[in-house]
Amino acid sequence: MPAPIDRDVRVREIRDAAFRLLSERGPAALTIRGLATELGGSSTLVTHFFANRAELLKGITESAIEDYDEEIAQLEQGADARQRLRILLEWMLPLDEEQVRAERGRVMLIGHAESDLNVGEFFVAMDRKMRELLRSHLTGLVDEEDVDETVEFLRVFTNGVVLSVAEHPTLWDTKRQQKLLQHTLELLGVA
Description:
Helices cover 71% and strands 0% of the residues. By secondary structure, it is mainly α. The longest helix is centred in the middle third of the chain and has 24 residues. This is TetR family transcriptional regulator.
Protein backbone atom coordinates (compact mmCIF):
# COMPACT_ATOMS: atom_id res chain seq x y z
CA MET A 1 0.00 0.00 0.00
CA PRO A 2 1.50 3.37 -1.02
CA ALA A 3 2.32 5.91 1.67
CA PRO A 4 -0.20 8.75 2.06
CA ILE A 5 0.68 11.93 0.18
CA ASP A 6 0.69 15.30 1.91
CA ARG A 7 -1.31 17.43 -0.53
CA ASP A 8 0.42 20.69 0.37
CA VAL A 9 3.87 19.18 0.00
CA ARG A 10 3.01 17.64 -3.38
CA VAL A 11 1.46 20.86 -4.68
CA ARG A 12 4.64 22.74 -3.66
CA GLU A 13 6.76 20.13 -5.43
CA ILE A 14 4.63 20.50 -8.57
CA ARG A 15 4.78 24.29 -8.34
CA ASP A 16 8.56 24.32 -7.92
CA ALA A 17 9.03 21.89 -10.80
CA ALA A 18 6.74 24.03 -12.98
CA PHE A 19 8.84 27.13 -12.33
CA ARG A 20 12.02 25.13 -13.01
CA LEU A 21 10.62 23.99 -16.35
CA LEU A 22 9.54 27.51 -17.26
CA SER A 23 12.90 29.04 -16.38
CA GLU A 24 14.99 26.37 -18.09
CA ARG A 25 12.93 25.52 -21.15
CA GLY A 26 10.18 28.11 -21.54
CA PRO A 27 6.37 27.98 -21.50
CA ALA A 28 6.08 25.32 -24.22
CA ALA A 29 7.76 22.85 -21.85
CA LEU A 30 5.10 23.35 -19.21
CA THR A 31 2.87 20.41 -20.05
CA ILE A 32 1.35 17.83 -17.76
CA ARG A 33 3.60 15.16 -19.28
CA GLY A 34 6.71 17.34 -19.11
CA LEU A 35 5.98 18.21 -15.51
CA ALA A 36 5.44 14.56 -14.59
CA THR A 37 8.76 13.68 -16.21
CA GLU A 38 10.46 16.47 -14.28
CA LEU A 39 8.99 15.01 -11.08
CA GLY A 40 10.05 11.47 -12.02
CA GLY A 41 6.60 9.93 -12.39
CA SER A 42 3.60 9.46 -14.63
CA SER A 43 1.09 12.11 -15.68
CA THR A 44 -1.27 11.01 -12.90
CA LEU A 45 1.28 12.40 -10.45
CA VAL A 46 0.18 15.83 -11.70
CA THR A 47 -3.40 15.19 -12.87
CA HIS A 48 -4.31 13.86 -9.43
CA PHE A 49 -3.98 17.49 -8.29
CA PHE A 50 -4.44 19.47 -11.54
CA ALA A 51 -6.57 18.15 -14.41
CA ASN A 52 -5.06 20.38 -17.11
CA ARG A 53 -2.56 23.16 -17.75
CA ALA A 54 -4.99 26.00 -17.00
CA GLU A 55 -5.89 24.40 -13.66
CA LEU A 56 -2.19 23.85 -12.99
CA LEU A 57 -1.38 27.54 -13.44
CA LYS A 58 -4.27 28.55 -11.23
CA GLY A 59 -3.23 26.04 -8.58
CA ILE A 60 0.43 26.99 -8.51
CA THR A 61 -0.57 30.65 -8.28
CA GLU A 62 -2.82 29.98 -5.30
CA SER A 63 -0.17 27.79 -3.67
CA ALA A 64 2.52 30.43 -4.09
CA ILE A 65 0.31 33.19 -2.69
CA GLU A 66 -0.64 31.07 0.33
CA ASP A 67 3.03 30.39 1.04
CA TYR A 68 3.97 34.06 0.73
CA ASP A 69 2.18 35.13 3.90
CA GLU A 70 3.81 32.36 5.92
CA GLU A 71 7.29 33.01 4.49
CA ILE A 72 7.12 36.74 5.10
CA ALA A 73 5.75 36.35 8.63
CA GLN A 74 8.67 34.09 9.52
CA LEU A 75 11.21 36.48 8.02
CA GLU A 76 9.73 39.51 9.79
CA GLN A 77 9.49 38.12 13.31
CA GLY A 78 10.62 40.77 15.79
CA ALA A 79 11.25 43.43 13.12
CA ASP A 80 10.03 47.02 13.36
CA ALA A 81 8.07 48.69 10.53
CA ARG A 82 11.13 49.93 8.60
CA GLN A 83 12.87 46.58 8.91
CA ARG A 84 9.70 44.81 7.81
CA LEU A 85 9.55 46.92 4.64
CA ARG A 86 13.19 46.20 3.85
CA ILE A 87 12.69 42.48 4.48
CA LEU A 88 9.66 42.47 2.17
CA LEU A 89 11.51 44.27 -0.60
CA GLU A 90 14.52 41.96 -0.29
CA TRP A 91 12.11 39.03 -0.44
CA MET A 92 10.66 40.45 -3.68
CA LEU A 93 14.11 40.64 -5.32
CA PRO A 94 15.96 37.68 -6.84
CA LEU A 95 18.92 37.72 -4.44
CA ASP A 96 19.98 34.08 -4.86
CA GLU A 97 20.20 31.58 -7.70
CA GLU A 98 16.94 29.81 -6.80
CA GLN A 99 15.06 33.12 -6.85
CA VAL A 100 16.71 34.11 -10.14
CA ARG A 101 15.55 30.81 -11.66
CA ALA A 102 11.99 31.31 -10.40
CA GLU A 103 11.87 34.88 -11.71
CA ARG A 104 13.16 33.78 -15.12
CA GLY A 105 10.24 31.36 -15.22
CA ARG A 106 7.80 34.14 -14.47
CA VAL A 107 9.40 36.43 -17.05
CA MET A 108 9.08 33.70 -19.68
CA LEU A 109 5.35 33.54 -18.99
CA ILE A 110 4.84 37.23 -19.84
CA GLY A 111 4.60 36.54 -23.57
CA HIS A 112 1.69 34.19 -22.88
CA ALA A 113 -0.33 36.53 -20.68
CA GLU A 114 -3.08 36.82 -23.29
CA SER A 115 -3.24 33.11 -24.09
CA ASP A 116 -5.95 30.70 -23.04
CA LEU A 117 -3.72 29.19 -20.34
CA ASN A 118 -4.85 31.50 -17.51
CA VAL A 119 -1.40 33.08 -17.54
CA GLY A 120 -3.00 36.52 -17.43
CA GLU A 121 -4.84 35.50 -14.27
CA PHE A 122 -1.50 34.38 -12.80
CA PHE A 123 0.00 37.85 -13.31
CA VAL A 124 -3.10 39.65 -12.07
CA ALA A 125 -3.21 37.55 -8.90
CA MET A 126 0.53 37.94 -8.25
CA ASP A 127 0.46 41.68 -8.85
CA ARG A 128 -2.56 42.08 -6.59
CA LYS A 129 -0.77 40.18 -3.82
CA MET A 130 2.47 42.17 -4.19
CA ARG A 131 0.57 45.47 -4.07
CA GLU A 132 -1.37 44.30 -1.02
CA LEU A 133 1.87 43.40 0.75
CA LEU A 134 3.51 46.69 -0.15
CA ARG A 135 0.49 48.69 0.95
CA SER A 136 0.35 46.94 4.31
CA HIS A 137 4.07 47.54 4.87
CA LEU A 138 3.98 51.20 3.84
CA THR A 139 1.01 52.19 5.99
CA GLY A 140 2.40 54.23 8.85
CA LEU A 141 5.77 54.77 7.16
CA VAL A 142 4.66 57.23 4.50
CA ASP A 143 1.89 59.81 4.51
CA GLU A 144 -1.47 58.18 3.82
CA GLU A 145 -1.97 60.27 0.66
CA ASP A 146 1.37 58.97 -0.68
CA VAL A 147 0.79 55.26 -0.08
CA ASP A 148 -0.72 54.46 -3.50
CA GLU A 149 2.02 56.28 -5.45
CA THR A 150 4.71 54.68 -3.30
CA VAL A 151 3.21 51.25 -3.95
CA GLU A 152 3.34 52.02 -7.69
CA PHE A 153 6.94 53.21 -7.42
CA LEU A 154 8.06 50.12 -5.50
CA ARG A 155 6.26 47.78 -7.93
CA VAL A 156 8.11 49.42 -10.83
CA PHE A 157 11.35 49.25 -8.84
CA THR A 158 11.04 45.55 -7.97
CA ASN A 159 9.78 44.58 -11.44
CA GLY A 160 12.64 46.53 -13.03
CA VAL A 161 15.25 44.82 -10.89
CA VAL A 162 13.72 41.40 -11.55
CA LEU A 163 13.77 41.99 -15.30
CA SER A 164 17.32 43.34 -15.17
CA VAL A 165 18.49 40.28 -13.23
CA ALA A 166 16.68 37.92 -15.62
CA GLU A 167 18.33 39.63 -18.60
CA HIS A 168 21.81 40.15 -17.09
CA PRO A 169 22.27 37.98 -13.99
CA THR A 170 26.03 38.50 -13.81
CA LEU A 171 25.63 42.27 -13.75
CA TRP A 172 22.98 42.26 -11.03
CA ASP A 173 24.50 40.30 -8.17
CA THR A 174 23.11 40.42 -4.64
CA LYS A 175 25.39 43.25 -3.57
CA ARG A 176 24.30 45.52 -6.44
CA GLN A 177 20.61 44.80 -5.83
CA GLN A 178 20.92 45.53 -2.11
CA LYS A 179 22.85 48.74 -2.76
CA LEU A 180 20.09 49.94 -5.08
CA LEU A 181 17.45 48.91 -2.55
CA GLN A 182 19.22 50.90 0.17
CA HIS A 183 19.33 53.96 -2.09
CA THR A 184 15.63 53.57 -2.89
CA LEU A 185 14.68 53.35 0.81
CA GLU A 186 16.78 56.45 1.52
CA LEU A 187 15.07 58.35 -1.30
CA LEU A 188 11.70 57.43 0.20
CA GLY A 189 12.87 58.46 3.66
CA VAL A 190 12.18 55.02 5.16
CA ALA A 191 15.74 53.64 5.37
